[in-house]
Amino acid sequence: MKSKTLARLASALVAGAASLTLLAPPAQAVTSTTYEADTIKYTNAERTKRSLGKVASNSCVDRYAERQAAAMAKAKRMYHQSLQPILSECRLSAVGENVAVGYTSGSSVVKAWMGSSGHRANILNSRYTRIGVGAVKGTDGRWYVAQVFGRGR
């Protein structure tokens, strides 16, 4: 009798645990869109902490960032693009770029850039008012990221 009661109790606990598992929310998959939005969000958070104005997403600058991220992913290596075409095409008076590979989220890539003097200088440059971010997951499973900053003429 005692073993039957224990068996029922064990079955009830297992069933209860299984139902709790089903109620757990699924893990949020990182997409290019969420990666890019988070990169802008955390970039602006760093600027705000220092009383700098936020940078606003700009379609022209964004197009160059996305192209660069895709090109790096295809080549499976990180490198900077020529910034001169961005100056003229997007009608900017100043432009800067940060690139990275291998970081799994927008927050982690911004944290890494903030630990590097040159990248940090771009993020905290008060002249920059525009931003574009491209993030592409390569066939090698790594994220390739380009962050382009600009200031209008």
Structure report:
The chain has 153 residues and is an alpha+beta fold. The protein has a single domain, classed as Pathogenesis-related Protein p14a (3-Layer(aba) Sandwich). Helices cover 52% and strands 20% of the residues. The chain has a 4-stranded mixed β-sheet. A hairpin with a 5-residue loop joins strand 3 and strand 4. The chain is globular, with a radius of gyration of 22 Å. About 12% of the residues have low confidence.
Layout of SSEs?
Elements: H1 2-23, H2 32-49, E1 56-57, H3 59-75, H4 84-89, E2 92-101, H5 106-114, H6 117-123, E3 130-137, E4 143-152
Parallel strand pairs: 1-3
Antiparallel strand pairs: 2-4, 3-4
Helix pairs in contact: 2-5
Domain SCP: 42-147
Signal peptide: 1-29
Protein name: CAP domain-containing protein
Summarize the structure.
The protein has a single domain, classed as Pathogenesis-related Protein p14a, CATH 3.40.33.10.
Question: What features would you highlight for this structure?
Answer:
single chain, 153 residues, alpha+beta, Pathogenesis-related Protein p14a, four-stranded mixed β-sheet, 6 helices, 4 strands
- Output the CATH topology: Pathogenesis-related Protein p14a
Tell the overall outline.
globular
How far is it from the N-terminal to the C-terminal residue, by CA? Answer: 86 Å
Reading off the top of the CATH hierarchy, the class is best stated as Alpha Beta
Ranges where pLDDT stays below 50 over 5 or more residues in a row are: 9-27
Mean pLDDT: 88
Question: Beta-strand percentage?
Answer: 15-25%
Instruction: Give the spatial strand order of the biggest sheet.
Output: 1-3-4-2
Largest sheet: 4 strands, mixed
Structural class: alpha+beta
SS field, number of helical segments: 6
CATH architecture identity: 3-Layer(aba) Sandwich
Q: How many β-strand stretches?
A: 4
User: How many domains make up the 3D coordinates?
Assistant: 1
> What are the secondary-structure elements, in order, as H or E?
HHEHHEHHEE
